[in-house]
Write a structure and sequence with these properties.
Oligomer: single chain
Low-confidence stretches: none
Number of helices: 9
Shape: globular
Mean pLDDT: 83
Largest sheet: 2 strands, antiparallel
Radius of gyration: 19 Å
Distance between the termini: 29 Å
Structural class: mainly alpha
């Protein structure tokens, strides 16, 4: 086991599970793009549910899943209907069950009481902002460079080397016109998440 993981085991929060859940979502999304079958749609729906239960910020995977399904099945209405129903209904039913069917109206949609309260709390926090400390200075608004800097400093060098090598391979495939749409699943999940995080007050 990694000495870092052992030394900081008591500090490991749901971020570790969230990282796995997001990776699982990206993997299921990639499989769905290659084979947009009913089974793959169910897998994608399960990944959305798992991610949302692990960490509230991963509720955004539901939006990603809908966009992915529409983009991949737009020419096949029957397949699109099943896949959309799966990625919407399964996470929704799963959330209701996980929160013991204690619901209130969120707009016009019945939603779990605690989930609605948590989402509203996050939205309020995002609007009000919070102090951000970076490079010896404290600011009152999100800094676009916070997460890129944190990743550059805190990510192990070996991981950075592997990321750079993977990025180079993708660039070469694009340059040689060998890249397929599915290849973007190597880059887009991470870029989307970091890009959204850079806009967040949770820094």
């Amino acid at each position: 086991l990694s000495p870092t993981a052992l030394a900081h085991g008591c500090l490991l929060k749901n971020d570790v599970a969230a990282a796995f859940a997001y990776l699982l979502f990206a993997f299921c999304g990639w499989r769905f793009w290659l084979e947009p079958s009913r089974r793959r749609a169910l897998e994608l729906a399960g990944a959305v549910l798992f991610g949302g239960l692990v960490k509230l910020s991963l509720l955004v995977t539901g939006v990603f899943a809908v966009v992915l399904v529409v983009a991949r099945t737009i020419r096949n209405p029957r397949r699109a209907a099943f896949a959309l129903a799966a990625v919407l209904a399964i996470p929704y039913a799963g959330f209701l069950a996980a929160y013991r069917f204690e619901v209130s109206l969120f707009g016009y949609v019945p939603a779990p009481v605690d989930l609605v309260r948590a989402v509203r709390s996050l939205s309020s926090y995002q609007e009000s902002g919070a102090p951000v400390y970076m490079l010896g200075e404290a600011g009152s608004s999100p800094h676009l460079g916070y997460y890129p800097l944190a990743l550059a400093i805190k990510t192990p060098i070996a991981t950075q080397i592997l990321f750079a090598a993977g990025l180079l391979l993708v660039v070469l495939r694009v340059w040689r016109r060998e890249a397929r749409v599915a290849d973007w699943f190597l880059l887009l999940p991470g870029l989307l998440y970091v890009g959204l995080a850079m806009q967040s007050a949770l820094q």
